[in-house]
UniProtKB/TrEMBL annotation:
Organism: Laceyella putida
Name of the molecule in the record: AbrB/MazE/SpoVT family DNA-binding domain-containing protein
A Pfam match: MazE_antitoxin
Keywords of the record: DNA-binding
GO MF annotation terms: DNA binding
InterPro entries from the UniProt entry: SpoVT-AbrB_dom (IPR007159), SpoVT-AbrB_sf (IPR037914)
SUPFAM superfamilies referenced in this protein's UniProt entry, alphabetically: AbrB/MazE/MraZ-like
Length: 55
């Protein structure tokens, strides 16, 4: 667990160790949603991307 600061634009840096563990690459999209009063950031799986863009 790490503490991160929210920037004036609302950005939050995802720690490198987490990006590497989930294989999140530059330019990829992630899900951001609320669950039980918490913000959750989740990697979008390839099959989910295809459903979203309709390919």
């Amino acid at each position: 667990m790490e503490i991160r600061k929210v920037t004036g634009f609302g950005n939050v840096l995802i720690p490198k160790a987490y990006r590497e563990a989930l294989n999140i690459e530059v330019g990829e999209k992630v899900w951001v949603y609320m669950k039980d009063g918490n913000i959750v950031i989740s990697k979008i799986q390839q099959d989910q991307v295809q459903q979203i863009v309709g390919n």
